[in-house]
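Deliverable D5.2: sample structural annotation.
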Amino acid sequence: MGSKNKLKRFLENDTFSNVFQPTREEVVGNEFPLKGKWNSDFFKNDNPIVVELGCGKGEYSVGLAERFPDKNFVGIDIKGARFWRGAKTATDTDLNNVAFVRTQIEIIDGIFAEHEVAEFWITFPDPQIKYKRTKHRMTNTEFLQLYKRILKPDGVMNLKTDSEFMHGYTLGLLHGEGHEVLYANHDVYKNEGSPEEVTAIQTFYENQYLQVNKAITYIKFKIK
């Protein structure tokens, strides 16, 4: 994407009522105004909040919001020019149960209050395969504890990835730390019984993976 196009999207994001782009200082300093008030001040209902981490173009957040009007969705990504697509689609179609926040995942406890979120989705994260990159792996112990603080006591996690490495690493960690694996599948499109929302919504890149017969994996779990 050219820098001119990127700038245009950044500027358009500023006009969308469903996009929030706080500064890092604001988030870290607990000054983000919607923290703890997403239901009352933005969504104006008591429906459960579902968060997609690393939402990219926002296709999954929008797809889930269309399927589940009785839930609220928030897509998180540091690249605002990417989720511009999802924000624009939601704006153009009057989809009021989805929002997007431009911030880093490691500071999302400045975006959501303790026990404010009912469910997390992690869709196609960078598996960070090299050992020295483990601290950036989105299902490592530190990240799981961060999510746990924000999740409701019965909150649920979803990991959907094309990386066999990420799938295996996460399953091993979950079993090793005694978390509760609710469902695990190493090829959701070839095995029956996968949750409908796992196969019915596809991202742009997922579609490309499927065209070359790359297996898509999925884990649903609870953090203990």
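Annotation notes: The chain has a mean pLDDT of 93. Strands lie at 19-20, 49-53, 72-77, 98-102, 117-123, 151-161, 180-185, 217-222.
The annotation will be released with the project's public dataset once the embargo ends.
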